[in-house]
Design a protein that fits this description.
The complex is a heterodimer. By secondary structure, chain A is mainly α. Chain A has four helices and no strands. The longest helix of chain A has 33 residues. In chain A, helix 2 packs antiparallel against helix 3 and helix 2 packs across helix 4. Helix content of chain B is 36%, strand content 10%. Chain B has 14 helices and eight strands. The chains are: A mainly alpha, B alpha/beta. At the A-B interface, helix 3 and helix 4 of A face helix 8 of B.
Chain lengths: 110, 342
């Protein structure tokens, strides 16, 4: 069955460099620099990426950063906590908008 | 957990393991070398005599390429142990690398250590850590320290879950306690008593960069457990024996072999460990590495087949026997008993 998302497409990511390779090169250099060991370790960055991948619901990123987290020594407890962080922020972001709802309702209501 | 041999699993057979790898469609290793314009592997100067003193072990790890365990009884006897020392007398091989199983459980382990040290050789003990706690081994740490044996200890994760998924329930806590005892004896403090750790991925993927993981291990082990060590080695899991059984059971074999082949790194080929070592089996047979030993792929191309033959041979050089498992040593940053290669 055809689907919009295909797991094999993850390995084809670099095809985005076939047109405007200058932009791809800039992106790749930036991307690699972002994920290098720095004030945060590569494992910590992988866990952040894993959480963000769930927040933006990107199956390619979830695949890539599940592997990366495992490779860098994270375990399922840590990865699950990362996903809960994403979930808490997403849920919290919805809930905090309730204040807006309450403000409008207070203004309009009797 | 019993060994594959104990339960008569088909993958206890080396022939079946090689057939399973062939069925993945992975190219032959020598064909890959040829395709990349690389010559067949040959030994350089022999730096390491790696001796597998037997398959007896107090653990039954899920990834073990030896299929070692408490139910394995194949261990090196006195005659072969004496031949090992005689080889060191006749050839200036600088390092004796003792592995198993749990090598310390062999009754001639301490003989090998004492005699090799008396000959001035560096001695490595590939230690599973928990062996330091078992009955009859209470003085092992002191013995290792007295003879300045370098300890290379398995700890696949700085987290309990990963370590125990690979090495068994309760192993993490026991390993930390053993590391603390080694630290207390002066190991891992940069003062000559070397304590190196080994990381194997806990699953069907390659290890991250050795330097990166070493920083993580250093920070986590020091801050959570007060444990210090010298270096971390990352070793890729070989698709043979129990790890192959795991790959088969989880439907990962083809994907893992494809990962190893796709990650072939020509830069790692120049420093694969087989180029600088001889591997000796518990029965005195010779191999190009411990993995070939477990696959029963003996040293070939006219090289001596036993320690007895080798003792008569002035030249230790030889062409290396390869098969598809060799992609495990050349994937990504490369892998060896001494960690990453590039």
């Amino acid at each position: 069955m055809e689907t919009y998302y295909c797991p094999a497409d993850l390995d084809r990511f670099a095809e985005m460099g076939r047109n405007r390779p200058d932009l791809w090169t800039k992106f790749k250099e930036y991307y690699d620099a972002v994920f290098a060991d720095g004030a945060l370790s590569e494992r910590e960055k992988s866990l952040i990426a894993l959480a963000v991948a769930h927040a933006v619901q990107c199956p390619y990123c979830i695949d890539a950063y599940t592997r990366s987290s495992l490779e860098h020594g994270a375990d399922l407890d840590q990865m699950t906590e990362a996903v809960h962080v994403a979930n808490a922020i997403r849920g919290g972001a919805s809930l905090v908008h309730g204040v807006q709802m309450r403000a409008i309702a207070t203004r309009l209501g009797m | 957990m019993p060994s594959l041999l104990q339960i008569a699993h088909p993958l206890a057979s080396p022939r079946e393991q090689l057939r399973t790898l062939e069925e993945t469609g992975a190219p032959s290793f020598d064909a890959m070398l040829h395709e990349r314009g690389l010559p067949p592997l040959r030994t350089d100067r022999i730096e390491v005599l790696q001796v597998n003193v037997g398959k007896l072990c107090n653990q039954t790890c899920a990834h073990c390429h030896v299929d070692a365990g408490p139910d394995r009884k194949e261990i090196m006897g006195r005659e072969v142990a004496e031949q090992v020392i005689e080889l060191l007398r006749r050839h200036p091989i600088p390092t004796l690398d003792v592995t198993g199983g749990a090598p310390e459980l062999n009754p001639f382990f301490r003989y090998l250590v004492r005699e090799a040290r008396r000959l001035g050789r560096r001695v490595l003990d590939r230690c599973n850590l928990t062996v330091l706690r078992i009955r009859g081994q209470q003085d092992l740490v002191d013995f290792l320290a007295e003879h300045r044996v370098e300890v290379i200890a398995s700890l696949p994760s700085f987290r309990p879950a990963g370590t125990e998924a690979q090495r068994g329930e309760g192993v993490f806590e026991k390993s930390i306690e053993a590391l603390r005892r080694l630290n207390a004896a002066g190991y891992g403090k940069g003062r000559g008593l070397v304590l190196d750790l080994v990381h194997n991925p806990v699953g069907a993927f390659l290890p991250a960069s050795q330097a990166t993981l070493e920083r993580e291990y250093r920070r986590e082990l020091a801050s959570r457990y007060g444990v210090v060590f010298d270096r971390l080695y990352t070793i890729t899991n070989m698709p043979i024996s129990r790890f192959l059984e795991f790959l088969e059971r989880t439907g990962n074999t083809e994907r893992y072999m494809d990962l190893l082949v796709r990650s072939f790194n020509p830069a790692a080929v120049g420093s694969v460990m087989c180029r600088t070592m001889i591997s000796v089996g518990w029965d005195g047979r010779l191999y190009d590495c411990d993995f070939n030993q477990m696959l029963e792929l003996p040293a070939g191309y006219g090289a001596p087949r036993t320690l007895g033959e080798l003792l008569e041979a002035p030249d230790l050089s030889r062409r290396i026997v390869t098969d598809r498992h060799c992609f495990g040593c050349t994937a990504g940053a490369g892998s060896s008993c001494g960690g990453a290669l590039t």
